[in-house]
Amino acid sequence: MKTKEKKFKQIDTKDKVQLVAEWLDEKQASEVSAVDVQGICPIAEVVMVAGAKGVRHAQALADFVLEQLSKENIEYLGMEGYKTGDWILLDLNDIIVHIFQEDNRGFYNVEGLWSEGTRIDLNLKPQD
Description:
By secondary structure, the chain is of the alpha+beta class. The chain has helices spanning 13-26, 55-72, 102-108, 110-113; strands spanning 30-36, 46-52, 78-80, 87-91, 95-101, 118-119. It contains 4 helices and 6 strands, in the order H-E-E-H-E-E-E-H-H-E.
C-alpha cells in the first residue's frame, strides 16, 4: 500500500516557534513573546504575541511570516484582521500568532489570558 506523500514539511512546534520569533524579530516586531498553552488551550499548543509600530508595520510582519512559511513549505491555516491591521491573527495550526498595534497590546492582554501557561525563552538577540 502506498502512503500518501506529505504536502507540507513536518516541523516540531518548538522549532517552528523559534523560526517565527526570528522572522518577527528580523522585521523589528517589538516584545515578541511565546507561551506554551498545551492542556489549557483547545486550539493551539503555543500562543505568540508581537507588537507593531503601525498598521503597515503589522501588515508587513504578517506578510513576511506568511512568505517565509511558504518558502519553507510550512502549513498555515488562515489569517484574520489584516485589513484594519489593529490586531492580526495568524493561525499556524499548532501556533496562534497575535500581531498587535503597540497601543492595543496592553488593552487586550493576551499574555495575561494565558498566564497559566509556561513562557517560552525565544533566544532572540536584544534589539538596539
